[in-house]
Design brief:
- The termini are far apart.
- α2 crosses α3, α3 packs parallel to α5 (148-175) and α4 runs antiparallel to α5.
- The protein has one domain.
- Helices cover 78% and strands 0% of the residues.
- The chain is mostly helical.
- The protein has helices at residues 3-46, 55-69, 73-119, 124-135, 148-175, 184-191, 203-225.
- Residues 218-226 have low confidence and may be disordered.
């Protein structure tokens, strides 16, 4: 075999395997991007603001796509480390934002659970199921065979129904006995984990709290007074 032909075969072999490696690296980056956006979809359902990827990261993703489609593999290979770093920063950013929301929701649920221990209005299993949902908030499964838009809708629907609506339903059921009474704001104070100072309450407010929450609260208030 002539040397030139042998070199061409070697070059073709190298290009084939390099392209396979590039495709594998791109697939990993796509998974990171999907994971980040799905976490962002969860955050959007839970927070008052939306998660938006950095514009420079979006531009970097578009550039990688263009280089791949144009078969500019050497330029793409040079571009991937920067893209990888940008995508990982975005994933860490959304995870940080989601952790903050997760912490706040967990604390709020702890307060509701404490109230439920005094009133027994909600099944403990519902609270435990919601605690499990909160623990899983910062995890997502990406399905490379599925459509991203479908996965995004599925994630948002699940969080809305199993976290947001369930938390609201539990709180509504626990607060039902206090609606229309002056005790409502003080019960919310207890749920938030803040103490109620007797010195700030009128006698009728103390009586109403003791009537609605019973002896457990009476002991807590007496301890707070001392």
């Amino acid at each position: 075999m002539p040397v030139s032909e042998f070199e061409r075969e070697l070059e073709a072999y190298y290009e084939q395997h390099r392209n396979q490696e590039l495709a594998s690296r791109l697939e990993d980056l796509v998974q990171t991007m999907w994971r980040t956006l799905l976490l962002g979809a969860k955050y959007d359902e839970l927070a008052d603001e939306s998660f938006s990827p950095n514009e420079e990261t979006v531009t970097s993703v578009e550039e990688a796509k263009s280089l791949w489609e144009a078969n500019q593999f050497e330029r793409l290979e040079d571009h991937l480390p920067d893209l990888d770093e940008r995508l990982k920063r975005e994933e860490n950013r959304v995870r940080g934002e989601l952790q903050g929301v997760k912490h706040d929701l967990s604390e709020h649920l702890d307060g509701l659970e404490s109230l439920n221990q005094r009133t027994n209005r909600v099944s403990q299993s519902r609270i435990e199921d919601l605690q499990d949902e909160l623990r899983e908030l910062d995890t997502v499964n990406t399905d490379s065979d599925g459509r991203f838009a479908e996965q995004e809708r599925s994630v948002q629907t699940h969080v809305r129904e199993h976290v947001v609506e369930e938390l609201n339903d539990i709180e509504d059921e626990l607060m039902e006995p206090f609606r229309g009474s002056g005790a409502t704001k003080h019960v919310h104070t207890l749920i938030d984990g803040d103490p109620i100072r007797l010195s700030t309450l009128e006698r009728d407010e103390i009586d109403e709290l003791q009537e609605t929450l019973g002896a457990h609260l009476s002991l807590q208030l007496q301890g707070d007074e001392s």
